[in-house]
Amino acid sequence: MDYEPDMPQIDTPHIIGYLYEIGPTMSTGMGLAPISFEEILAWQSLTGIELEPWETRILRRLSYDYLSESHKAEKADYPAPWQPVDLTQETRDAISKKVQNSLRSLMLVKNTP
Question: DSSP alpha helices (H): ranges in 2-88?
Fold first, then answer.
């Protein structure tokens, strides 16, 4: 019997495809690291795919998040990184605040020269 866990809905599946084509992380002398802008640029050059700036930022962010979650997931009791559909208002508020903070940090990166 195959096991398929519940997964969150993905509104931009092409981004996830790109992430796994590039590789969600890269090896360095000190272990795994998020993919670099240079890796993304090399991938674009080799594939002929031109990413929008927001797609590049999302790929980098997903790579950071992937690496972070993979470290946390080494603990046997670590919960899935997404939440079930039936959330309490308190949980919704906490998630909303987390998303707002993430978007603010992306805006700071975008506006940094």
Answer: 13-22, 37-47, 53-72
Residue 62: which residues within 8 A CB-CB, separation 6 or more? 15, 16, 19, 24
Whether this model's pTM surpasses 0.85: no
Query: What angle (nearest 5°) sits at the alpha carbon of residue 104, between those of residues 7 and 16?
Result: 30
3-state secondary structure of 25: strand
Helix-strand-coil percent breakdown of the chain, rounded to 5?
55, 5, 35
Please tell me which residue, 17 or 77, carries the higher pLDDT value: 17
Residue 59 buriedness (CB in 10 A; 0-12 / 13-18 / 19+): buried
Question: Average of pLDDT values for 66-85?
Answer: 80
Say yes or no to pLDDT of 29 above 70. Answer: yes
